[in-house]
Design brief:
With 195 residues, the protein is of the alpha+beta class. InterPro entries: cNMP-bd_dom (IPR000595), cNMP-bd_dom_sf (IPR018490), RmlC-like_jellyroll (IPR014710). This is CRP-like cAMP-binding protein.
Amino acid sequence: MSKETTPLVEYFKSYIPLSKKEIEVLNERFVERRIKRKQFILMENEICQYYTFVVSGCLKMYNIDGNGEEHNLQFAAENDWIVDIDSFHNKKPSHLYISALETSTVLQIEKNDLVYLYTYYPKFDRNFRVIIEQKFIELQNRVLQNISVTGEEKYEFFLKHYPQLSNRLPNTQIASYLGITPQFLSKIRQRRIKN
């Protein structure tokens, strides 16, 4: 695959055309990693070092409560981003984990490289602002759902937001994201099949 047509380059080009130099510097500043299933790229109390773009596979960001229960905050599959933004920007220990649900290939950028892109290539500053705004909108919608809709409606939203993941993830992972039990999710899925 040409360096001018990588998934990351295509992602940015979907927002705004990039010059050859911008493509070159983008490819120089990101590092590719292969992540095994269940491998962590962030653990609680570590400082999040990378903004991560998923080329293939699926990652999750989650918290573990005092009872040892996992609470999934986000999934990131192909052409999506994942980061503990607070830890990354403020250089403070994370309260979250990020791990691979599937064997994955990711591209990662460190904060100083990201600041370099912002400073010398303003298109990336605008692009990352859009990315952050979209994630903020997702978060607002998620909070609104958690306080105002039924389990069935949460699942419908999940299917719209993550259509490619509904058959790739086990019920336990989806249920954790929705804040319902796996048994209740199974009932919701069975009702959908019957209707």
